[in-house]
Amino acid sequence: MSLESYRKPVDTLSGSLRIEEAIDLPRIAIEAVSPTVEGGRFAAKAIAGRTLTVRAVLIADGHDKLGARVVWRELPAGDWQHVPLKPLGNDRWEAHFVPPRACRLAFAVEAWWDVYASYADELKKKYAAGVPISLEVHEGELLLEKSAKVAHGEHAAALQGVLTRLRDTESLDRRVGVLLAPETARAMAQVEAHPHRVRSALYPLEVERRLAEFASWYELFPRSASNDEQRHGTFRDVIERLPEIAEMGFDVLYFPPIHPIGRTHRKGRNNALTTVEGDPGSPYAIGSEEGGHEALHAELGSFEDFRALVAAAREQGLEIALDFAIQCSPDHPWLKQHPGWFSWRPDGSIRHAENPPKKYEDIVNVDFYAADAMPELWLALRDVVVGWVEQGVSLFRVDNPHTKPLPFWEWLIADVRGRYPQTIFLAEAFTRPAMMARLGKVGFSQSYTYFTWRNSKAELQEYLEELNEAPLSECYRPNFFVNTPDINPYFLQTSGRAGFLIRAALATMGSGLWGMYSGFEICEAAPVPGKEEYLDSEKYQLRIRDYRAPGNIVAEIAQLNRIRRQNPALQTHLGFQAYTAWNEHILYFGKRSADRSNFILVAISLDPHNAQEAHFELPLWELGLADDAATEGEDLMNGHTWTWYGKVQWMRIEPWVLPFGIWRIRVPGDVAAPAAPAAK
Amino acid sequence: MSLESYRKPVDTLSGSLRIEEAIDLPRIAIEAVSPTVEGGRFAAKAIAGRTLTVRAVLIADGHDKLGARVVWRELPAGDWQHVPLKPLGNDRWEAHFVPPRACRLAFAVEAWWDVYASYADELKKKYAAGVPISLEVHEGELLLEKSAKVAHGEHAAALQGVLTRLRDTESLDRRVGVLLAPETARAMAQVEAHPHRVRSALYPLEVERRLAEFASWYELFPRSASNDEQRHGTFRDVIERLPEIAEMGFDVLYFPPIHPIGRTHRKGRNNALTTVEGDPGSPYAIGSEEGGHEALHAELGSFEDFRALVAAAREQGLEIALDFAIQCSPDHPWLKQHPGWFSWRPDGSIRHAENPPKKYEDIVNVDFYAADAMPELWLALRDVVVGWVEQGVSLFRVDNPHTKPLPFWEWLIADVRGRYPQTIFLAEAFTRPAMMARLGKVGFSQSYTYFTWRNSKAELQEYLEELNEAPLSECYRPNFFVNTPDINPYFLQTSGRAGFLIRAALATMGSGLWGMYSGFEICEAAPVPGKEEYLDSEKYQLRIRDYRAPGNIVAEIAQLNRIRRQNPALQTHLGFQAYTAWNEHILYFGKRSADRSNFILVAISLDPHNAQEAHFELPLWELGLADDAATEGEDLMNGHTWTWYGKVQWMRIEPWVLPFGIWRIRVPGDVAAPAAPAAK
Question: Which residues form a coiled coil (chains A, B) (predicted)?
């Protein structure tokens, strides 16, 4: 099988088409191939081991039958695999296959005129209608003979067998029986020419490991891990905290930068422009005389300590994620070693960084397109990432990627993933929607989202729906962080404990990826007044917490993560469907796994202060059940099971007990796979 | 300006990107360019003289200002034109231009880093904030100097003037004034380098004359034009009917095939398989000893008569449309002259045509991919069309195009339109939606639709909305035929006169293109019982009618067409917006012209038997008016004018009077152009 496409490029600009070109154009049009991103310019996202559905629209003149399949292989040179496309009606076709491991794949859609199937279909209809068909039977014999002539080996033998059976009988009924036999169809399928065969473009797929789509992230500042405000925390201290984090069900432990912190323009407590003795500074002011992005902040420990932490975390089922923040404190060694990587002002200074409205007086940015920076800076940054991968880190949360060039990310991610396919990049992009999607296209595995600013039922429902639809569904995986060191959501500042449970339920049930920054589990919410910032932010100082403080929600978080691990429907943001609950404070939706066997219903009251009640609809129609059917449900927070009778049910949610309900409903085993979407 | 794109092809399949390639990739991403079809593979549709809106999403890292424009030219080698793209917010940009005439165009989107605009924006903000800016002013001087060095002629002089004014003053305020002056911005825009400039692919546009989007078609069988059942009608008889057709406001007069009719297997009355003496046969059984697709059926008249008819029609403002039906009676000369253009069965016969469930025993199809047919048959068919164009015909209704190869249409339409850009092709495709859209993509100007089978309010509203959205809005123009010789809609079989008025109003108000087959104006509806066929169908016999019969709707049709001519909003199917009327039998919508000055409201009761009443909303919000505003309206069917007070109004529709209302509302002259769509 060759990579060459049968589809010739056409000069659509001239407006004319030479007759020879027209005759060579594919007779069958292939449209709407999915999953694809920007017509194949970028890879669509897939997960190793998870069934992938390929869809296409095939359009051909007339009424003959088409054959079609998906061909795919691992790049650069795996063996070609193929799987049949099956018609769904209205020219839409679908195929499924399972990418076996993290890699880059390419797939294409092939289609052809299925001459024998068209013939057999017509013969069958005419035979059933009782019209004269001796001419049709003769035509069938000719088709078989034609193919037998070009067949070899076992295929030739099979066809000769069919022809012998056909000629051995004078009975029209038996001859029709031979022509319509499944083995005749199979023999012809092996041999018959495929006229008007066409292959689509090849479309790339980036297949990632499961953690790229299903993971719970826990963020902490290692320097606070000492649990002693007078002593700078260390990687060894973090090791002590691992069991409790693992017990809450997290998979990823993420640290803000752990590199040497600059002293020039160092920020004091609460983002002050001046410091007092002992202020540690923001870890985002990366680089000092002790080193830059490749170095460790000495007070945290040695590389040996760091590797010990990575290993200890793995034993607890946790992977370490590091922050990749491409910026420099004015003390970063690069300013002296590579002044050509920066853009200098006429007075010999460098403009400090901004991400409006935020100002970062303690950091400066590199200039990716400075003459001296291409390619040295790009390569140096790649080497920073590779260096940390070699220390056992395979997840990177990338700081403000939208302020760095898109081609840089496209190159860096492809380069690193080419060497280490397990690497996962999370984009910390809070910017305009087109840029956030584009970062997914150029290679980020997942992204921060607008989740923290979606609070009403309508906002949440619309957002979850948008994430489930193309183009986002094919290029963008949302990681729902409930808070970050930069975001102390207004809602949580006044919601009390119930609000934290609400946001935890929304995040854990809404997406396969969610994250929290430490303090959330003890409902920490004191703000800089009027701002979405934490008071006494850990970005500028150590913070000691009592993680067992009364009112903590550790048990609930652990249970939510447990439910996620037990239910495939909750291991992705895909498969979301809003259902009807007649109360504007109750968001009510279903998540269903791609194989449709796991079906979870979630109702979350968005009101942390008052009880809310609602009638709601059980989606019996999705289960192929009548409106008065009985359904078995299980409350996944407390294990109770019961039977619902009928479609419309009633609920009451008391936020002081639990502001949400999560139910698994039994999918009737005897219900056939759901019908294809209705033809138009 | 060169055609070369700055965008380099990237090997997305290898999954890796060399660093040199990455550095050369465009820094600015261009996405979602519209109007485009299949990424530029096909031309999007446009109309000469009508404002075209180009949209694109431009994505770049950071916070600097971009500049952008659309470049376009007539193909193959017109002068390049350009028009600025303006930002709408959220990375979306928009530009407008007016294609001057029927032709093929190409356009592209260009974007670049606007260094001076970014600089000036920052200077302005800092100046307003009162922070120190002497360094910024110095940077501005350096930017001007840098550009002055590379400028020539008047641009150099302009920049030198700016620099002189800047250096002539010590006052910081005045220096800022010079740097921010509009003439400084203009001078820099002329000269400044455009770093990171990128150009999108070139996208083709097929620009057609207005009749491709706004036309009223009238269909008749010339052989019935004698008004005497005993005498075969002629082209001369048709000339007699022209004034009454023109007075009804039609633009296009369309004939079923006018070629010699075969005798073998000729169909009798009501599709009988046998004939009696005098049966004229179906005109779709094209070809006899007298000739084929290039010939005239002798009883209709000579070529001289035909040209006289074409000329007389033009004098009445009517253009003639012919049927292009690629099929042959068994008597067509091609069967003998070119047996290799057909697919012969083992018994020496040719399979008769079918379009399930319809059977056409009197015709056979050509085989486009027969060895002898490529390219001779294709060329012969092209020559048939060109021959009729040379007789003065520039509209073709193409019979069953979906049963002929798509590449054939793509080639034929481009070839004919390359010679005669005024040519318009209407696809008679009643098939699956993907094929109908694809026919628009390969070049058909317009298409038959599902209109005749959309009867309920929900069906009609959904269909009109779908036609207004991409991809259909960019590749498919709907021609709403209310009936055809093949479709006697079930609704009209029992609706009585009011039903004909309902369907006429839906068609004329819903699309710029509508059509009717003669008999509709006198509410003819007698069916073959239980079928959507006309009894005593004119396809198989002459039909004499009294076009002044009592109960005719000639005056209403004329008034509907008059309203269309007077209101640009009604000259396209685009610009449709459903509004709220609280009655499921009343479809209520607005049509608004692209320049938003012409605004029509339409309410149509879908109930031909009973009066219907409803409260309904005037779309005051679209006019920038408060909910209690007064609006002036004019009833376009009777000329009454009045003032509505407030948003919610009431209507009563009595089908025995008129089953619809059409109102023009005054667009307040002092309302500013509507705001851009809200940012997300």
Answer: none
Please give the structure tokens belonging to residue A460: 């949440």
Q: Which residues of A touch B435 (CB under 8 A)?
A: 59, 61, 91
Amino acid at site A520: F
Closest residue by Cα to residue A459 from A596, A606, A591: A606
pTM of the model: 0.93
Chain A partners of B104 at a C-beta cutoff of 8 Å? 13, 15
The rounded distance, in Å, linking the Cα atoms of B569 and B213 is 12
Confidence class of residue B676 from pLDDT cuts 50, 70 and 90?
Answer: very low
Which residues in chain A are contacts of B433 at CB distance < 8 A?
A: 90, 680
Let me know how many helices (H) and strands (E) chain B has, helices first: 17, 28
How far, in Å, CA of A221 to CA of A223, rounded? 5
CA distance A189 to A192: 6
DSSP codes, A451-493: GGG--SHHHHHHHHHHHTSTTHHHH--BEEES-BTTB--HHHH
Q: Which residues of A145-172 are buried (b: 16+ CB within 10 A; e: fewer)?
A: eebbeebeeebbebbeebbebbeeeeee
State how far the Cα of A199 lies from the Cα of A6, in Å rounded to an integer: 6
The answer to whether the CB of A204 falls within 8 A of the CB of B12 is yes
Cα–Cα dist A293/B444, whole Å: 60
Percent of chain B with pLDDT over 90: 89
Written as six digits, the tokens of B307 are 């040209």
Task: Count Cβ atoms below 10 Å from residue B670 Cβ, excluding itself.
Answer: 5
Report CA Rg, chain A. 30
Query: Which among B39, B43, B345 has the least Cβ separation from residue A39?
Result: B39
Cβ pairs A/B, distance under 8 A: 191
Terminal-residue alpha carbon distance, chain A: 36
Q: Which residues of B contribute to the annotated binding site for alpha-maltose 1-phosphate?
A: 267, 327, 362, 400, 539-540
Rounded to whole angstroms, the Cα distance separating B438 from B163 reads: 58
Annotated catalytic residue A247: no
| Alpha-carbon span B378 to B373, nearest angstrom | 7
| Whether A415 and B17 lie within 8 Å, measured CB to CB | yes
User: Are the CB atoms for B222 and B253 separated by under 8 Å?
Assistant: no
Best of B12, B199, B349 to substitute, by most chain A Cβ atoms within 10 angstroms, is B12
Tell me whether strands A599-605 and A660-665 are parallel, antiparallel or unpaired.
antiparallel
What one-character-per-residue DSSP string does A312-324 give? HHHHTT-EEEEEE
Collapsed DSSP state (helix, strand, coil) of residue A628 = coil
- Give yes or no: B399 in active site: yes
Mean pLDDT per 10-residue section of chain A, whose length is 680 residues: 45 79 95 96 95 97 95 94 97 96 95 95 92 92 93 90 93 94 92 90 96 98 93 97 98 98 96 94 97 98 98 98 98 97 94 81 95 96 98 97 97 95 96 97 98 98 97 97 98 98 98 98 97 97 95 98 98 97 98 93 98 97 94 95 95 97 85 37
- Residue B348, min C-alpha distance to chain A (Å): 11
Distance CA A403, CA A400 (A): 6
Residues 6+ apart with CB under 8 A from B582: B614, B615, B616
Query: Partners of A319 in the beta sheet?
Result: A252
Q: What are the residues whose beta carbons fall under 8 Å from the beta carbon of A600, sequence distance 6 or more?
A: A509, A567, A569, A570, A590, A591, A592, A636, A662, A663, A664, A665
Collapsed DSSP state (helix, strand, coil) of residue B403 = helix
What is each CA distance from A523 to A228, A504, A540, in whole angstroms? 20, 11, 20
Q: Nearest residue on chain A to B9, judged by CA atoms?
A: A41
